[in-house]
Amino acid sequence: AQSVAQPEDQVNVAEGNPLTVKCTYSVSGNPYLFWYVQYPNRGLQFLLKYITGDNLVKGSYGFEAEFNKSQTSFHLKKPSALVSDSALYFCAVRFPNAGNMLTFGGGTRLMVKP
Amino acid sequence: DGGITQSPKYLFRKEGQNVTLSCEQNLNHDAMYWYRQDPGQGLRLIYYSQIVNDFQKGDIAEGYSVSREKKESFPLTVTSAQKNPTAFYLCASSITRARGTEAFFGQGTRLTVV
Predict the structure, then answer these.
(1) pLDDT tens, A48-90?
(2) B108 vs A41: CB contact, 8 Å cut-off?
(3) CB neighbour list of residue B91: distance below 8 Å, 6 or more residues apart
(4) Which end of chain B, C or N, has fewer beta carbons within 10 A?
């Protein structure tokens, strides 16, 4: 079955340290992968996407993500975390042969402490 | 400003009452979506529409209905058949349903049963 997972409910990191928010998927074929961020009581904001090409994708607010086909992962990263990065992060996937619906992981809460 | 507007921001429903959540977009997007967000459960797809006068059920359509009479509007009705409607509802749109296109989200409507 095709699925997307975010194995960590919460990630804690100190301001200035690098951060990683994990995403893994299971699919037969090539997925299209997305990251979104959600601040409290707000909608989701698009950060970045992987369609094809370079495995390292750069997005908004200094975030980047690395596509790893062999590990079926698409982890979100940032070299130096800010307190303002604290939010809920969602990985999303468009699977082939599934009507191209956008399927979301369960979300990871990122807490950046000063 | 271009974007997706959801209204109202907060909505209270009595037991057995139908309520309609509004979603309007001026992005000229073909595809529109409704998601439900519960704490700790990520986003689940309720309905989606690729084109005017066409819509399809998502993963949790029971107790909900939609219409797509205009390209820019995709209202969601939460009927009395939905037994647990208290949730945060998010509307989204994308330029097409093509796999490489990201979705843009409204700010959400928080529905509470009283």
Answers:
(1) 999 888 899 999 999 999 999 999 999 999 999 999 999 999 9
(2) yes
(3) B4, B6, B21, B23, B25, B32, B33, B34, B35, B74, B76, B105, B106
(4) N
Give bridge partners of residue A82 from the DSSP assignment: none
> What is the model's pLDDT at position A80?
97
Q: Is B70 exposed, middle or buried (0-12, 13-18, 19+ CB in 10 A)?
A: exposed
Task: For chain A, positions 33-72, list CB contacts with chain B under 8 A.
Answer: 34, 36, 41-46, 49, 51
Cβ of A97 under 8 Å from any chain B Cβ?
A: no
- Residue B14 half-sphere exposure, CB side, CA atoms within 13 Å? 1
Cβ contacts (< 8 Å) between B43 and chain A: which residues?
Answer: 44, 90, 104
DSSP class of residue B70 equals B
